[in-house]
Structure formats: structure tokens, C-alpha cells
Amino acid sequence: MNVSPGTQKLILSLLILSALGFVVYSTLFTELEVPLDLDGNPVISNVVGQDLIILADKLESVEIKRDLFSSSLFTNLVDITVPVEEEVQGRINPFSSIGTD
């Protein structure tokens, strides 16, 4: 069967276009499957922020040993904070015209 090169290009273009259309349609119009429990209800484990809830549960179980505060490493800590000095206040209304203060 002899098919002209123009017809071959047209058939190949239609096949590529239909394959591309199928891929686009299947990615855009397919619904995401929501996992269901045995009763048919959506599973709550996919809740936004579930990782924060799990982290909060882990933090609640943390215990600090009281002997940490009486150890020599803790009592020998030195406070090296620098006091914050008062700074000069600017104008009462920085948006008003100059000279109207």
C-alpha cells in the first residue's frame, strides 16, 4: 500500500495530537481518590496540619530531668546579655509637614 508522504505526515500528526490530548485529559479531569475507612467515611489522617498535631503529641510526652538545673554545667553558665539603651524618640507624627511639630 503506497501512501503519499503528505498523508503519512497527517496521520502521524493526528496520532501524536490524539495521544497528547489523551494525556492532558487524563491528568486534568481525573478525580483524586480519597482514602475511605471501613464505613465509607474519608480518612482523617490526610488533614492539613496533621504533622503539627503529631509533633504536639510528641512534645507533650517530653520530660525534663530536674537534676539538670542543679548540675555544675548549668549553675556555671554566665549571663552575657547587653542592656538595651534608650534611644532618642523621633517626631510625634513623622508624616506631618516639617516645622509643624
Features:
101 residues, flat, 3 helices, mainly alpha
Write the layout of secondary structure elements.
Blueprint: H1 5-28, H2 50-60, H3 72-75
Any overview of this molecule?
The protein has 101 residues and is an all-alpha fold. It has a domain at 8-75. The chain is 39% helix and 0% strand. It has helices at residues 5-28, 50-60, 72-75. The N and C termini lie far apart (96 Å). The relative contact order is 0.04. The model has no long low-confidence stretch (mean pLDDT 84).
Helix/strand order, N-terminal first: HHH
Biggest sheet layout? none
The rounded Rg comes to: 35 Å
The proportion of residues in beta strands is under 5%
Terminal residue distance: 96 Å
Structural class: mainly alpha
Unreliable spans? none
The helix tally amounts to: 3
Strand tally, please? 0
Query: Which oligomerization state do the chains in this entry correspond to?
Result: single chain
Shape: flat
Helix content: 25-40%
Q: If you average the pLDDT, what whole number results? A: 84
Short description, anyone?
The chain has helices at residues 5-28, 50-60, 72-75.
